[in-house]
Recover the amino acids of this structure.
């Protein structure tokens, strides 16, 4: 039976660990994405109908524009769908950490990490530099690579998640295997 952990996070015990669901954070920007998508679809429809009506290759819109248009439609549609139905699922037991991304009930990808290889589990706050904005997330080191998940997580949610994870497995705080914490 799932229980609320903190904010939008829910958790449940499994046979030998825990399972935590982290839904994608929804924000008002989804409205801007939706309006953009409608306008972009309208522009594409207009271009395609003009191509169809003209039957003249010299007046038709270049194929590269249509490819760009289709990529834009796909990207924005996936962005909206992720905001509405996306989630990361963390499964942790005494041996491994598994992170699965799901959207509309479909599994998009799974990554598994041996607990012994996971180091320096930490919350990374939101960073704004100029025009770029890197949302808050959880990062850790695994075999010399930095891995990240749980994007746009609030600090209170991250701390509650760390506390629940710590009850199942105590990850080392150091960044190199073999160092003592």
């Amino acid at each position: 039976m799932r229980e609320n952990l903190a904010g939008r996070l829910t958790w449940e015990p499994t046979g030998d660990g825990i399972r935590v669901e982290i839904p994608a954070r929804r924000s008002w920007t989804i409205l801007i994405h939706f309006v953009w998508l409608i306008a972009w679809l309208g522009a594409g429809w207009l271009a395609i109908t003009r191509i169809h009506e003209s039957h003249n290759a010299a007046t038709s819109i270049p194929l590269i524009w249509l490819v760009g248009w289709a990529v834009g439609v796909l990207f924005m549609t996936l962005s909206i769908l992720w905001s509405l139905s996306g989630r990361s699922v963390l499964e942790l037991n005494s041996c491994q950490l598994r992170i699965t991304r799901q959207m509309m009930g479909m599994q998009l990808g799974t990554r598994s990490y041996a607990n012994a290889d996971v180091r320096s589990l930490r919350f990374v706050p939101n960073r704004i530099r100029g025009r770029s904005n890197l949302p808050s997330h959880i990062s850790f080191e695994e075999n010399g690579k930095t891995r990240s998940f749980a994007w746009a997580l609030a600090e209170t949610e991250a701390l509650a998640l760390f506390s629940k994870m710590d009850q199942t497995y105590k990850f080392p705080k150091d960044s190199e295997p073999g160092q003592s914490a």
